[in-house]
Amino acid sequence: MDQIHEKKKITIYDTTLRDGAQGEGIHFSTQDKLSYVKRIEEMGSLIVEAGWPGANPRDEEFFQQVRDLRLPYARIAAFGSTCKVNESPQNSEILLKLLASGAETITIFGKAWDLHVRDVLRTTLDENLRLIRESVSFLVSQGRIVFFDAEHYFDGFKENPDYALKCIATALDAGAKIAILCDTNGGSLPGEIARGVKAVMEAFELQELGIHVHNDSGLAVANTLVAVEAGVTQIQGTWNGFGERCGNANLSTLIPLLQLKGDYTVVTDTALLKITSFSRFVAELSNAPFDEKQPYVGRSAFAHKAGMHVDAILKNQRTFEHMDPAGVGNERRILISDQAGKANILDRLRRFEPTIQKDDPRVEQAMTEIKELENSGFQFEAAEGSLDLLLLRIIGELTTPPFEVLDYHVWSDPLRGELDSVAVVKVKVGQESVHIASEGNGPVNALDTALRQALVSFFPILGKSELVNYKVRVLDGARGTEAIVRVIIDTRLEHEVWGTIGVSKNILKASAQALLDAINWTIYCGEVSRHTSSGHAVVVPN
């Protein structure tokens, strides 16, 4: 009988809340961290390094409150260092704070590079070994599971391999459950990572070994993959690659890479389907921009623009996709631009009219209009809301607009304070006209507020949407203040975000175009949702 092949299990040590929070512009409040560990449960059995108890009041507060949470899967780890030079572990405030955190798993780092021992700790190589040995032994004696981060291991191994390995041996002999090899400066090459890992694997009989690399050379994911291939069983990293300087190894890439491309089990199949949504959740929680070009989870990861590529992928997705986007909870996107062919247009139109064929004259009409508009400054790949409104008009679904703007005026007065602008709008819905004025923080905010206030009683869905991003680009800077500007506005409705666009020499007019498209698309989405819930057959656009 054939033997069932069993994939090698790789465990995840998630340091987003600690190492990731050291990234520029990244911040997690205590409540953010609590929300994070609740949500991380859907990823299964991960170890979550949640902070350094004693480093700041926020982390101490977190470890006090997290004890009250029931976490069947996530395992919380506290992070800190060894005791200080010439200090006993029993008198170490660092180690005592780690114990007081209540965390069952404690990760401490110690120097594995003799340069750091001499120039940073300003002590002897033997004293550094004592710090490692006694710190690990003390924590183990208190009933804690201890992980040892061999800080700067790979740099230390290159310059003094015997001492770097001695640091690992000292921690393991003192009772550390696992040693983690750290490329703390992020400057090692894949070959150097492989040699460093193999040296440890040959020197010690280990069931577990970890890897922690930074991305300063753009190689964090590659170096982690090489380390796993050399025998590592635990990968450390952060979601979206957050972290100090250039960041850490990106779990959003590594998890699907190892599980789908390698012979490894990292998370459950169910968790893999949530990788994209979880990566976005982490970005939103940290108030950081989400990198849409991330492999696997970014919106651009499976976005196709060139007409020949689109034509091929609609015939066979393997022609230009290395995997099914749905396997990581993502989706294919067919972009529409001046490089689009009929296949691009046809794919988009079929969201609204599934039976439309390539030789339908409306396909050619849409392609012509889009290319003419992009030639004048529009960019529909970043403004799918405006694009879909254009296509709906061409196929005849939006023959009558839901409202009409009869007039609007906007002015600003810097002496008014924070609400320095006023917008007056007059709109008509059916046979009813509404005339309203509204203040705002800037002219665009004032106009947006006035339009929504005038229309929300007719279209309640507008009360659920919000403007989340506003971008202006000057298209021909050589013309100075007479330049054409492109405004792109991103709007959120529940969990969906889309862009709309306006182009004009007048920045306010361009903004108004984008705002009106945003409102029209929101209303359309509300109508689709209402008809769908009432049982009418309506094609819901993605």
SSE inventory with pairings:
Layout: E1 8-9, E2 11-14, H1 30-39, E3 47-51, H2 57-66, E4 75-81, H3 93-100, E5 105-111, H4 114-119, H5 125-141, E6 145-151, H6 153-159, H7 161-173, E7 178-183, H8 190-203, E8 210-213, H9 220-229, E9 234-237, H10 251-261, E10 264-265, H11 269-272, H12 275-286, E11 303-304, H13 307-315, E12 333-334, H14 342-349, H15 361-375, H16 384-394, E13 404-412, E14 421-429, E15 432-440, H17 443-455, E16 465-474, E17 485-493, E18 496-504, H18 507-533
Description:
This protein has an eight-stranded parallel beta barrel, surrounded by seven helices. Strands 13-14-15 form a three-stranded antiparallel beta sheet. By secondary structure, the protein is an alpha/beta fold. Helix content is 38%, strand content 20%. The longest helix has 27 residues. The protein folds into three domains: 279 residues, Aldolase class I (TIM Barrel), CATH 3.20.20.70; 73 residues, no CATH class; 136 residues, Double Stranded RNA Binding Domain, CATH 3.30.160. The chain starts with 7 loop residues before the first strand and ends in a 9-residue tail after the last helix. The C terminus is likely disordered. The protein is built from 18 helices and 18 strands. Keywords: Amino-acid biosynthesis, Branched-chain amino acid biosynthesis, Isoleucine biosynthesis, Transferase. Pfam families: HCS_D2, HMGL-like, LeuA_dimer. It is an enzyme of class 2 (transferase). One of its GO terms (molecular function) is 2-isopropylmalate synthase activity.
